[in-house]
Design a protein that fits this description.
Blueprint (H helix, E strand, L loop, with lengths): L1 E7 L2 H6 L3 E6 L5 H11 L6 H4 L3 E4 L2 E2 L11 E5 L6
Parallel strand pairs: 1-5
Antiparallel strand pairs: 1-2, 3-4, 3-5
Length: 84
């Protein structure tokens, strides 16, 4: 088991009602498993973590769904970026 910090930005912060949460996760959890756990522990996230398009960074590096999480990781859910 390990503890990770999950940070929310933009509209997700408003939906969750807080900027960050600390979760205990099983060793070698994937981002998919983390999303499922978020939906279980934060009812307002139900369906959002699976359907919304946003970037996910682990320790300030963008990653894919297959990323493995470790004790002490910081996971950030970021809004889509646009620019020019």
């Amino acid at each position: 088991m390990g503890t990770v910090t999950v940070r929310f930005f933009a509209h997700l912060k408003e939906i969750v009602g807080q900027e960050e949460v600390h979760l205990t996760i099983p060793d070698q959890s994937s981002l998919k498993q983390l999303r499922d756990l978020l939906e279980e522990t934060i009812p307002s996230m139900k369906g959002i973590a699976q359907k919304q398009a946003f970037g996910i960074a682990v320790n300030q590096e963008f990653v894919g769904e297959e990323a493995t999480l470790h004790d002490g990781d910081e996971i950030a859910f970021l809004p889509p970026f646009s620019g020019g």
